[in-house]
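Let us work through a complete example step by step.
Step 1: write down the sequence.
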Amino acid sequence: MGIELDVLVGNPEHELVFFGVQIAKAAGLRDPSGAVMAYRQTKDAQGEPKLSLGGLMGIYAIKVPECRVGGAFRTFRSTMAMLTEGQSYRMLLRGHATASEPFRKWVRGSPPDHPQDWQLRR
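Step 2: predict the structure and record it as tokens.
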């Protein structure tokens, strides 16, 4: 199973910056946008930067990424919530979606329920 995520790299403060809704969708959360907003309102997220694509564009003079999907271009709104790698992990660890259970077990160091969940990547 492959999951494709758009990632911004090269930020001097954060090694990887993800589109929050993409992370939540990939994890199988029912309401991805709501999950990102809910995470940002938790105690875990207090004091953390609330990044948005538009905010990063203003600070670091980056352009809105363009991505061709099929024959059409996919565009990104400047208001899209962005999450650092740590924020992404914390948001997913709080959830209970069945689809993200293998991820939670991996982070916590528990073996997967099914041996076929182990994949060797080269």
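Step 3: interpret the result. The beta strands are 7-9, 16-19, 51-52, 67-69, 72-74, 81-84.
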